[in-house]
Amino acid sequence: MAERIIELRDISKSYGQVYALGGVNLSVDRGEVVGLIGDNGAGKSTLIKILSGVVKPTSGEILIRGKAVTGWSAARSREAGIETVFQDRALAVQQTIVRNIFMGRELTGFLGWLKVNKEIEEASRLMREIGFTSKVFTPQSIVGQLSGGERQGVAIARAIYKQAELIILDEPTTALSLTETAKVFHFVRQVRASGRSILFIGHNIHHVFDIADRFVMLDRGKVALTADRSEVKSAEDLINFMEDVAHPGGLAGLHDTGDAERAVR
Ligand SMILES: Nc1ncnc2c1ncn2[C@@H]1O[C@H](COP(=O)(O)OP(=O)(O)OP(=O)(O)O)[C@@H](O)[C@H]1O
């Protein structure tokens, strides 16, 4: 059985009167791509913030590799090998790929000299590891010249350099073309093949369906569905389920009870 990298048990988070999450259970195993889906306001961002330790849950338990953790924080999350690649990717576009990968954690030697060649070598290795092979770009290329998908690759390579075991990708394919999305999927598959795990958050259910091994759907702060890839036939199944959860009974149901009439008033 695959090692359980992280497990959230009965996690709740409230902001004053607002319940962002209520009793969420979520786990990610080694080498697994978990797709996290849900409508606006479902609680996805709150869950990411809890996983990355920047927001503390109001209640619930966090287990890392089977052991309950106390004093969960951003530092603990990093120690546990959890890295988040945010939607804006937080890359310095006027800098080179290598500078972006090592930013804040430069390889230095005696008297603090930067080990430039060593960094270039290591950046090449990381890029190869995630399948970022290019005849055009080298570690010394400027990030601003890269496409959207390739920039995701740089952010993923940086996460791996930081020893990530679980990489959280927050909307990695939003606003990307089909070709660029395919590049991101290629990186994700390489990361999975290396035995690391991915939590893939996406608004586009088709994208999540294509890449995830398991799906977790949030609805108004609760897990509405958790299903293996083999249990879901198509992205449409997921979309239909999501619509049913949001509007139980659909419009037909509303008509039956006369609610539709009241709703339009
Ligand atoms: N800092 C905060 N203070 C008060 N309420 C918050 C805060 N952060 C989130 N919420 C509320 O918690 C609920 C869940 O929000 P969250 O941002 O986690 O959802 P989401 O699924 O990420 O949505 P989106 O896809 O729109 O980003 C929402 O009702 C939101 O208004």
TrEMBL record:
Read off the CDD domains from this record. ABC_Carb_Monos_I
Q: Where is the ABC transporter domain?
A: 6-245
Keywords, comma-separated and alphabetical: ATP-binding, Nucleotide-binding, Sugar transport, Transport
Stored InterPro entries: AAA+_ATPase, ABC_carbohydrate_import_ATPase, ABC_transporter-like_ATP-bd, P-loop_NTPase
Picking any one GO molecular function of the record gives:
ATP hydrolysis activity
Task: List the Gene3D superfamilies.
Answer: P-loop containing nucleotide triphosphate hydrolases
Put simply, this protein is called Simple sugar transport system ATP-binding protein
Which organism is this protein's natural source?
Mesorhizobium sangaii
